[in-house]
Amino acid sequence: MDLDIQCEEMSPSRWAELLTTMKSCKSIRLDDCNLSSSNCEDLSSIINTNPSLTELKLNNNELGDEGVEYLCKGLLTPSCSLQKLWLQNCNLTSASCETLRSVLSAQPSLTELHVGDNRLGTAGVKVLCQGIMNPSCKLQKLQLEYCELTADIVEALNAALQSKPTLKELSLSNNTLGDTAVKQLCQGLMEASCNLELLHLENCGITSDSCMEISAVLRNKSSLMDLSVGDNKIGDSGLALLCQGMMHPSCKIQKLWLWDCDLTSAGCKDLSRLITTKETLTEISLIDNNLRDSGMEMLCQALKDPKSKLQELWLRECGLTTACCKAVGSALSTNKHLKVLHIGENKLGDAGVELLCEGLMHPNCNIQSLWLGNCDLTAGCCATLATVMATKQCLTELDLSYNPLDDEGIRKICEALRKPSCNLQQLILYDVLWSSEVDDELRALEESKPEVKIIS
Hints:
Layout: E1 2-6, H1 12-22, E2 27-31, H2 37-49, E3 55-57, H3 64-75, E4 84-86, H4 95-106, E5 112-114, H5 121-132, E6 141-143, H6 154-163, E7 169-171, H7 178-189, E8 198-200, H8 211-220, E9 226-228, H9 235-246, E10 255-257, H10 267-277, E11 283-285, H11 292-303, E12 312-314, H12 325-334, E13 340-342, H13 349-360, E14 369-371, H14 382-391, E15 397-399, H15 406-418, E16 426-428, H16 436-448, E17 453-455
Parallel strand pairs: 1-2, 2-3, 3-4, 4-5, 5-6, 6-7, 7-8, 8-9, 9-10, 10-11, 11-12, 12-13, 13-14, 14-15, 15-16, 16-17
Helix pairs in contact: 2-3, 3-4, 4-5, 5-6, 6-7, 7-8, 8-9, 9-10, 10-11, 11-12, 12-13, 14-15, 15-16
């Protein structure tokens, strides 16, 4: 049994009721529930007495160091079987790290620790690394985003990486590391004992200067499948270096996030070559890069290549217009693998979406999720979108948010939703205005088709 509660104020009677339920839960989630250290004392008892509990999520609660100390008393008991612990944004400081170090050193069942959004600091995480290096520790995932880390943390992290071949995922995003520290980190990642599969370094002060070292890791570490370096100013020159590493036969990259990396259409030449060469690559995020229509057309040529196995492509806010939509439609009609296309916040217009829909209607197209929010769409394209919705049973998610569709457009969308052939499960309509009469129609539609979720 699982307990999944979010954003609920806990009265004493409600808490007492939940404690009874928790005694038999395998997973407990209590994010944003205004919990404090006093609740942690009760949770410690649950951890101690419920050997079936394997996952505990307590994100966004004011637990503090005192609360974590209570939790760790339960975690240190022999009967504890907890595998996953989430304590993001819980008002922790470096003082909690000594207690958590004891758990990491003594509790081999714990494989995931998420402590991002806490002011642990470099000194605190160095203490955590001591626990990770203990032979009893079997940690596989460590999340340290927004922990106020500096370049001084890398030596301790490298020691942990080298001593812990079980560690598969490391997230250091939103910490002030810089190129020098990232270069040093790459030395640790190159060690034979390191088996990291996921590395997230978003907003870490990286430039093209450290991309050669990251490229060497990609070239030499076939275990690394998920790399995110978004929100770093690597530019087209840095991207070219990364692509050199990913093009190597040893690289098995699957997921690549490059959002807001100062990329331009010039970088799309390297990306296109990567898409047509690296058949393991299934997901790319290029959000908030100024690729423009010329860059998009290069990407579309790559998507049409039979060797492309890309399944997800994120292109929100990339400076695209109607001019590239014929190429996108052509790629959609050719590529059988693409399942998710996020192309919102681009000035596609009704004419552009009409061209996209030509590709979407092709039998080869297998798109499941299509995001067209804030694309300057009106009711003029909704009849064509409605035809796609009623025809393409693979399409299960559609985002049309922030477009002035008005009553006329929403009614056309509703007509498609009512048809038995429409398989849409989620329709997202944030900040789309309609009348009270149309609102009644939407509510009635939700009642008649409960499998359809309309988010507005």
